[in-house]
Amino acid sequence: MTFWQENYGFIKEVYDTRYSKMVEWMDNIEMAIQKVCASKVYTSAEFKREKDNFQSLCKNLERAETKKWLTETLETLMKERAPDEQKEESKKLKLIMERHKTLIPKIQETLVKTECYWKCYSYGDDLIPIFEFIDDLRNRSVKELLSGNSEQTEEHIEKQDKVVNSLENKRKMVLDFIAKGEKLMQDQNCPKFLEGHVKKLREAWEDTNEKAQIRKKALADNLSSWEIFEDKKIECHKHLDTADAEFEQIKKIFDLSAGPADYNMRMKTAANYRHTIEDVYNTVSNANATLQQMLPEDRKAGMNDEVKELTVRIDILAKTDERLLFIDDFNKRLAVWNIAVTDLEEWLDEGRKRLDTIKNPTDVLSPEDRVTKSMEVQEDISKKSDFCNKQEAEKTEIFPKQGEKVSSDAKKFIERLKNVRNELNKLDDEVKAECAKFSEDVKYWAEFQTGIKAFDPWLKKAEKRKVEGLKTPKSLVEACEILGDAKNFQEECETKLQILEEATVSAQKMASHTDADDKVAGYRSRWLAVHETTKEWVARMTTLVECWNKLDGNVGELSSWVSTKDSAAPDGSSEISIEKLETQLVTLKTMFAEKQRLVADLEAYGSGTGTEKPAEAAKPVEGEEAAKPEEAAPAAVAEEPAAEQPAA
Fold first, then answer.
1. What CATH code would you report for 327-437?
2. Alpha carbons 68 and 73: distance in angstroms, whole number
3. Which of 294-310 are b and which e, b meaning 16 or more Cβ less than 10 Å from the residue's Cβ?
4. Cα–Cα distance, 607 to 601 (Å, whole number)
5. CA-to-CA dists, residue 61 to 23, 51, 108, 408, angstroms
6. Cα(85)–Cα(77) distance, rounded to whole angstroms?
7. How far is CA 86 from the centre of its chain?
8. What is the pLDDT of residues 178-188, one digit of tens each?
9. Tens digit of each residue's pLDDT (9 = 90 or more) over 417-454
10. Could you give the CA distance from residue 38 to residue 31 in angstroms, rounded to a whole number?
11. Separation CA 324–CA 263 (nearest Å)
């Protein structure tokens, strides 16, 4: 039996012990790495302990002898062992060898990080006194200060200058320290907390400098505000005294040119005063606001009261604006009022001319026209009177009240309106008197017009009928009807004349009736023309009807005589007398020709002019001019009864 076989148990125990220590060492190394690289921010002392522990574990990092011994020992021990056991033990050893191999780069990386971390923690330790310095200066720049006068402010300024100087002296050191931190941050292994340290340092430094400068400026402003407050307060009161005096000088000026000019001048003055006073007042108010920040409580109310006094007095600017607005409105109202009064004055001249035209017309005026024009003038006077009332009401508002002093310019305006009122009343009385004079004439004029309105349509219709003329009758009955209608027209014409006569009587009662007389003369002339036509119509139709009636009688008589002779002829009791028959036929022919001529005259008269055409009317009807008595008789006897049968 070999040595290794005899001592296998002892050697195996030693092997397992060294194997376990190798595993334990790697476990400790990994734990140390986790602590060093933890997200926790250590104090520098805490990190130093972790760093030292890690670095002590990293001694003899390669463990070459240990690995060699474990490998060789395991190989010797396993020569005569079962294959399964050999395989299992080899696998275990291989695992720790691979673990060690994998762990070495991580350990080396952590060693580098540890050095960087240690520099960053050392940097943080160095920040503590710098932050204490910065915080002290910042607190001195923000602590509350009280200053009751300029001397106290000057003392505070001296102290603040020391703070600013201290910051300036440490500026290079702090900025270098910030640059150092930024350089450390460039290392990729730099921990995140360093960025926070550098940022906090930069912000604290900038904030402290800003607060120091703000406090220094505030103290400087406070110091200058003491002098500004006193000087500008006095200056503001002086300007307000001037503005008060200017306000008292703003008054109404009853002059259409001087008033607006004065208003424009005072508007410019008021604008200058407002700009100056508001600028000085704002300066005083701002100075007080600056002083209030450091004033002791017992001094604040007094300073505010001094500013409040100026605030009350500065209301004069608003009062001035209101007064100027009132003056501007007054100037505009006075100008409008002047135009209104001027219009009334001009209209009075026109109204006087219109009244004179009514009283002494150049053309003939009817009473109705006179009254109408008088009433129109009277209505216009009423409107102008109402308009004048408005101007009188306006006068009480823009002119001085009773008991107040009235300037000479204002008196001129008032006197003008008074004269307008007197002239309006006078003109109104005259127009009413003129209107009363023609009131009676209007009554007669209305009666006259009523008659004319009734007569005129009839006359126009009659004249139209006259133009149309007489119809040509086709039979004796129709001729009789036309005659009757002509007589009715003549009677109507004579009846309507009475209307014109009554209108003429009414016109004669008027004081002035020239125009009415002219109208009556015109209507009478037209009536006479129509009346003459009616008389002529009646005469013509009477002649025609008489002729036609006589012709019909003779035809009937002749027909009756011929019939009697014809019935007695067979027994030889009587014979027709040829001479007598011829005589009767000639008479009938003559009468028939006369009737035809009268009808032809009516046809020629149909134009309605009242004139006829004798040459044409005298012609006998066609077929009758060459007929001999013997030849015409049978035709006349045969034609007449047939043509006049309806009349028989």
1. 1.20.58
2. 8
3. bbeeebeeebeeebeeb
4. 11
5. 13, 16, 9, 123
6. 11
7. 107
8. 888 877 777 77
9. 899 989 989 988 888 887 777 666 667 777 777 888 88
10. 10
11. 7
For the entire predicted model, the pTM comes to: 0.46
Architecture of the CATH domain 3-136: Up-down Bundle (1.20)
10 Å CB burial of residue 41 (0-12, 13-18, 19+) is: middle
Query: For residue 450, what are the contacts with CB-CB under 8 A and spacing of at least 6?
Result: 503
Cβ(456)–Cβ(440) under 8 Å?
Answer: no
Query: Is the domain 454-648 a CATH 1.20.58 member?
Result: yes
Distances (CA, A) of 327 to 247, 253, 270, 324: 12, 9, 13, 5
What is the signed CA dihedral for 575, 577, 581, 587, rounded to 10 degrees? -140
Q: Is 611 left (phi over 0), alpha (psi -120 to 50) or beta?
A: beta
Q: How many residues comprise the chain?
A: 648
Round to the nearest angstrom and report the end-to-end CA distance of the chain: 199
Q: How far is CA 57 from its chain centroid?
A: 92
User: Which tokens belong to 109?
Assistant: 């990386």
Q: What is the pLDDT of residues 272-289, one digit of tens each?
A: 989 999 999 998 888 888
Which residue in the block uniquely carries the two structure tokens 């060690």? 100
d(CA 123, CA 193): 11
Amino acid at 300: K
Listed in order, the ranges of the chain carrying CATH 1.20.58 are: 3-136, 327-437, 454-648
Which range is most confident: 67-81, 529-543, 596-610? Answer: 529-543
Which residue type is seen at 341? V
pLDDT of residue 325: 93
